[in-house]
User: Which sequence fits this backbone?
């Protein structure tokens, strides 16, 4: 059984930073993917970043590129998403998701069967 738990959300002012954590358990494949998604109020959920094959592959959305950075701590089975230069448009519920094999489209939410409960990020102007 795969479990996914996010943490690290909070409230910051524009220009600030946050680090989100995603801890997984039960993943067995080297080719597994961990993805980060976000959903703002009234909007569809969108893929932000994905971390595959134990860090060999990383993917970022256009909005995340250059501002958000993925990293990992293998000993803790944790993937981090560093959020920098935050703007009010980044305010959303951020979700971590996992799949236990490779994906050609890791920023699509339909690629992930295992999801965390979400962590709220609020950026004020």
Assistant:
């Amino acid at each position: 059984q795969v479990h996914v738990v996010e943490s690290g959300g909070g409230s910051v002012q524009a220009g600030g930073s946050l680090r989100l954590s995603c801890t997984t358990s039960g993943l067995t494949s080297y080719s597994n993917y961990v993805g980060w998604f976000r959903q703002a109020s009234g909007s569809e959920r969108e893929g932000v970043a994905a971390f595959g094959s134990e860090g060999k592959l990383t993917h970022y959305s256009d909005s995340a590129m250059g501002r958000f950075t993925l990293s990992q701590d293998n000993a803790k089975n944790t993937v981090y998403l560093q959020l920098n230069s935050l703007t009010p448009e980044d305010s959303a519920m951020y979700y971590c998701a996992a799949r236990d094999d490779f994906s050609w489209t890791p920023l699509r939410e339909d690629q992930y069967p295992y999801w965390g409960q979400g962590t709220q990020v609020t950026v004020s102007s």
In short: The CA atoms of residues 95 and 118 lie 4 Å apart. The chain has a mean pLDDT of 95. The longest strand covers residues 18-25.
